[in-house]
């Protein structure tokens, strides 16, 4: 690409440590289908983050596949998912969950997040049984689609409600690394394992070539999960490729180091945009930024950088999305800021 990309946090290949590990182990023979030594080591490292919780951990190739597997394996055909209207399974996965037979009940997000009140409202509005699909699972993501964070108190309140109402709780962790490494975060992996029934840890957006780790904390959801993996085409013969990457990410804290770097670059970029006089559609808490920029300025910047125009703001301005990554350098941020300031001059 001739223009530096702020489109996403997976435009680059993989962190050099991962490529080195893949190269060094390339000729070592390993058992297939995710029971290789590297995957077992990765599971042990991930479980160490979770205290007394001893979950099952499965590695899959993509986030959409993680959501499909987590939801379809946990629910019966007449059971539904409650999700924020901005949730990834609603707006970015081409009806993948509906294609498995599950209805998604959407509720308006508050700063990108679900609240206990919104969940209760959805339960009340979908209670005419057996004429309506029964809400059974609550879906949320941390960080959210607009980069905001759930506090421990917020997640605990949702978890308590779910357990009182017999609901399962799934946390989409595509950008969990960014959330856990954020300055305002007060959650740990252990907290999430204790408060949810299942969640997944995104590797694709934190320096892996590809891969997500599904963590099943609720023992009732573990039985026969391998069959679901196989039926969905997710049980890779060369599962070692996924496991080895997570071993490298969690062996010496690389996962949190890379996610933290992306957040630092985002804060640097956010501060400069704010100092230039521009407002934001959402507070910059992780590695996604949503500044509101004049349309003329956006067009000038797109001559030099790749980024999404997220949504119109008014007739003369739009919200754009900028995403920093583990590979973003200060010079990339500074170059964007320099062009922003130069293009804004009369």
What does this 3D model show about the protein?
The chain is α/β, with parallel strands linked by helices and 346 residues long. It is built from 14 helices and 13 strands. The protein has helices at residues 16-24, 37-47, 63-74, 88-91, 96-99, 116-125, 152-165, 176-180, 189-195, 225-231, 240-251, 254-275, 295-301, 330-344, and strands spanning 4-5, 56-60, 79-84, 104-107, 134-141, 168-172, 198-202, 212-216, 288-289, 292-294, 305-306, 308-312, 317-323. The strands form three sheets. Strands 2-8-7-6-5-3-4 form a seven-stranded mixed β-sheet, sandwiched between helices. Strands 9, 10, 12 and 13 form a four-stranded antiparallel β-sheet that branches. Helix 1 packs across helix 11. It starts with a strand and ends with a helix.
In short:
With about 350 residues, the protein is of the alpha/beta class. Helix content is about 40%, strand content about 15%. α1 crosses α11, α2 runs parallel beside α11 and α12 packs parallel to α14.
| Whole-angstrom Rg | 21 Å
H/E series, N to C? EHHEHEHHEHEHEHHEEHHHEEHEEEH
Note the gap between the termini: 30 Å
User: Considering DSSP H and I runs of 4 or more, what fraction of the residues is helical?
Assistant: 40-55%
Mean pLDDT: 97
């Amino acid at each position: 690409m001739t223009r530096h990309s702020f489109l996403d946090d997976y435009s680059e290949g993989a962190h050099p440590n991962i490529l080195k590990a893949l190269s060094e182990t390339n000729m070592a023979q390993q058992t297939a289908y995710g029971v290789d030594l590297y995957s077992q080591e990765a599971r042990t490292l991930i479980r160490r983050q979770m205290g007394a919780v001893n979950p099952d951990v499965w590695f899959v190739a993509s986030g959409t596949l993680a959501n499909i597997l987590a939801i379809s394996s946990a629910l019966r055909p007449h059971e539904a998912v409650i999700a924020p209207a901005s949730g990834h399974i609603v707006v970015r996965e081409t009806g993948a969950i509906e294609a498995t037979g599950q209805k998604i009940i959407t509720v308006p997000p508050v700063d990108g997040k679900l609240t206990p009140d919104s969940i209760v409202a959805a339960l009340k509005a979908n209670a005419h049984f057996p004429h309506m699909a029964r809400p059974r699972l609550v879906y949320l993501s941390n960080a959210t689609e607009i980069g905001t964070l759930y506090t421990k108190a917020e997640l605990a309140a949702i978890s308590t409600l779910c357990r009182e109402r017999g609901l399962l709780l799934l946390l989409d962790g595509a950008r969990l690394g960014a959330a856990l490494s954020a300055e305002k975060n007060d959650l740990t992996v252990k907290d999430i394992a204790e408060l949810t029934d299942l969640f997944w840890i995104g590797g694709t957006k934190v320096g892996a070539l590809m891969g997500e780790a599904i963590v099943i904390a609720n023992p009732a959801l573990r039985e026969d999960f391998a069959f679901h993996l196989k039926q969905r085409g997710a049980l890779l013969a060369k599962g070692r490729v996924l496991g080895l990457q997570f071993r490298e990410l969690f062996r010496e804290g690389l996962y949190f180091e890379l996610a933290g770097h992306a957040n630092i670059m985002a804060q640097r970029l956010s501060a400069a945009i704010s100092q230039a006089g521009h407002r934001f559609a959402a507070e910059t808490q992780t590695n996604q930024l949503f500044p509101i920029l004049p349309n003329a300025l956006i067009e000038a910047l797109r001559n030099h950088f790749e980024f999404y125009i997220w949504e119109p703001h008014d007739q003369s301005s739009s919200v754009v999305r900028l995403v920093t990554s583990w590979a973003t350098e200060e010079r990339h941020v500074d170059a964007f800021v320099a062009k922003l300031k130069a293009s804004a001059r009369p």
